[in-house]
Amino acid sequence: MRTLPTARRSANGPAAGFTFIELMVVIAILSLLASIVVVNLDGISAPTKLRGTARSIGNQLLELKEMAALKDRAMSLEMDLEHQRWRVIDAPSVVDIPDEHEREDATFVGDWVETPEGVRIQEVSFSSTDVDSSGSLVVTFQSDGEVSPSGFVAFLKHDTLPEDEGISVEVSGLTGLIAYHDGHFKAEEIRRPEDF
Question: CB of 156 within 8 A of CB of 50?
């Protein structure tokens, strides 16, 4: 029968190994180092928050485009630049519910999604001269994929980062596809449907 090895004693003294006190000191030191690392993660999270917010807005817009096609009706995203938030609006079509009051009652208005702390939607531009930096605007996808207003660029910035380290979310007026650009991407001359 085999026995487990026991701590060996040296010829001059106590058993080899670590004492409980030594283990506790090492654990305390490791805990202190881990808490310092966690505190320092806030310094590198600004770009992560910024990109995450841009992706959230872009993904929400792509989802609305797909839902508009699936439901065969318009789907909208309301952006409140004043309070730095956005929400989904799903209104039934006039064909589905002809009565205006019933249609208003049946409209789904989602909860507001706020930008993380420090992240701001600085502006939404429809062209080089048509730029909104406050107020509220509504982006609508029709069932055929057309977006109204016809394409735009939302520029997001983090308070702790320089201006050139922001990120732009571009929505193509032609296809409704989303592109992400580092820095302040300028919108091309884009026309709204009411301009024609």
Answer: yes
